Amino acid sequence: MADIPTIANQLAMALQKISNLQEENLALKKENLELKALMNDRVTKRSKMGATTPPHSSSSDDDEVPTSPKRPTGKFSPHKDKDGSIHFALEKNKRVTISQFKGKTLVGIREWYEKGGKMLPGKGVSLSLEAWKELCAQMAPVQTAFENKNMEFNAVLSMARNGGQKKLSISEFRGNTYYNIREYFVGKDEKLLPTKKGTSLDEAAWVSLTELVPSVEAAIDDIVHK
Fold first, then answer.
1. What phi, psi does 203 have (nearest 5°)?
2. Residues 6+ apart with CB under 8 A from 47
3. Do the bridges between strand 118-128 and strand 165-173 make them parallel or antiparallel, or are there none, so unpaired?
4. For residues 137-160, average pLDDT
5. Given pLDDT bands bounded at 50, 70 and 90, which one contains residue 21?
6. What residue spans of the chain are helical by DSSP H?
7. Per the confidence metrics, is the pTM higher than 0.70?
8. Are 120 and 112 in contact (CB under 8 A)?
């Protein structure tokens, strides 16, 4: 049986722990109140600023709440063509074009060249909306393959009735690594062979393409629902 001094010591320790927990609880409540006050102050400031502050303008708040995306401006501003299509400059003479052909909406990634004062389409590839969505879904995996120089990466974006395919892959040429989006056909030996319909993007062009995705999606929505 424990003696009275020991019990007294244990009781004193227990009371001290209770006191410490109470102090910690009060401190947490105080921090929560201060945090709520800070957030309310930020919300009030933003509401007062209203439309005068762009949603993506610089701010001293590191934890600014994301806002819904607006129409693209600046580097990714859309250019409307006479035929009703919309294009974005991707890199030098390359464009991403959203157009309609025989009632179908297409996303083209293509080189353009000037002739007689006009810009004309050159080598490239056109993707259906389904193929475009698959390309977007494969952007993270193919970037990992690119960084690891995994030349075995191969993703089918779409398949034709004759067995042909449009594929996303990685290739290397003269020491440089590229992202390839290309159309393939079935050869005599039933093997898939590459066609001239396609495009190769270096790392900078690919990064621009990934950044363009929200703008392209907005353009697709404009054309589909116009």
1. -60, -40
2. none
3. unpaired
4. 94
5. low
6. 4-49, 129-137, 139-147, 203-224
7. no
8. yes
Our CA dihedral for 126, 131, 134, 135, rounded to 10 degrees, sits at -10
Q: Which residue has the tokens 């449009």?
A: 166
Which helix H or strand E contains 92, and what residues bound it?
none
119-128: pLDDT as tens digits: 888 899 999 9
Q: Could you tell me the end-to-end alpha-carbon distance of the chain, in angstroms, rounded to an integer?
A: 88
Q: Are strands 118-128 and 154-159 parallel, antiparallel or unpaired?
A: unpaired
Per this entry, what is the length of the chain? 226
Rounded Cα–Cα distance for residues 215 and 72 (Å)? 6
**Residue pair 56/72 in contact by the 8 Å Cβ criterion:** no
Euclidean distance between CA atoms 170 and 154, whole angstroms = 8
Task: Quote the tokens at residue 65.
Answer: 């709440």
Query: Residue 189: which pLDDT band, with cuts at 50, 70 and 90?
Result: confident
Determine the Cα–Cα distance for residues 58 and 102; give it in Å rounded to an integer. 44
